[in-house]
């Protein structure tokens, strides 16, 4: 790309090489080499000797500026690599001031990549849009970003000619960005309707159908359903009642889908709908409760030999909790630890919200829970906890200590697995 230069690197003899512009052939390779430092979010927080934080920040921002420029490159591979590098940085650091100055440039780049890019590039751009809004929080700047990207995302989601993966990524992005920025109730309802029109296509047309076959669009239906469910958690109660009446008797049909992820998404959505229904009406009554609990119990104890062991294990774990929620109004509280703090996930609404942001932030979730004002507000954690240098030092363990701990844990896991294998070996496989 013209205007972006490789720089004056020295050869083995110490002489500077001729400065050359990026070419289409080597741009992607060059970008990938620069991007490698961002491939693992942990690289931002590795232990090591004390460094000049100001210089490190300047170096980081210099690299990020280069990646932003490269999102406009002629090479699709270069653009995608730059988008992925920005995603890794945004998920691992709070970069509010840096992004604030360049939010419109970033928005324009994302819009261009979603409109003109192919599947993988569109997915990367949609993921970056999510992280951009997470960084900016629920202010007027994020609203401007969503006003630009919202219509583009909706267009891709509804475009039957676009790749399923791109539509799936855009559906997730649409739900998350709307959740973060929308104060306009009309926009909230419009976005939910867009997502609703996608996942209702997974409902069986014949009410007597016993099973639902998965299709290439099933992954899209799952993402649209989960994004819609997230938005339902911030709807006014009268709208929640309408949606419950509309979908609560249809969703159980998805429990018969032959795709395990669809069954799980439908089950968790049902648990959340029951939780919201009981909040809005203490005397809430579901007519087909006996039939539904039978279905849920069957999934919680599923021993179908035709299903993969991993899928069965995952399904049984989820549906035990779903069954408890529907039948006993109970939720197994989870504890999330980050730094010196603890957060308790004690309801399905909170679980759905946490799982959504964990999916897009990955290993950066803990860092953002500690430092991101928007996320702390969502989970009612209060202002970030300020720790002095002494407190931070006592919390940190050295790389060597971490290595010893990991080695010990690995050996313990190996021994435990060996014992399990020995026990399984004693069970006759032929009977």
UniProtKB/TrEMBL annotation:
Annotated Gene Ontology cellular component terms: nucleus
Coiled-coil zones: none
A Gene Ontology biological process term: cell differentiation
InterPro entries documented for this protein: ARM-like, ARM-type_fold, IFRD, Interferon-rel_develop_reg_C, Interferon-rel_develop_reg_N
Residues in Interferon-related developmental regulator C-terminal domain copies: 372-425
Segments forming domain Interferon-related developmental regulator N-terminal: 31-327
One family name in Pfam for this protein: IFRD
SUPFAM superfamilies: ARM repeat
Domain of life: Eukaryota
Keywords, comma-separated and alphabetical: Developmental protein, Differentiation
Quaternary structure annotation from Swiss-Prot or TrEMBL: Interacts with PSIP1/LEDGF.
UniProt similarity note: Belongs to the IFRD family.
Name of the protein in question: Interferon-related developmental regulator 1
Source organism per UniProt: Anas platyrhynchos platyrhynchos (Northern mallard)
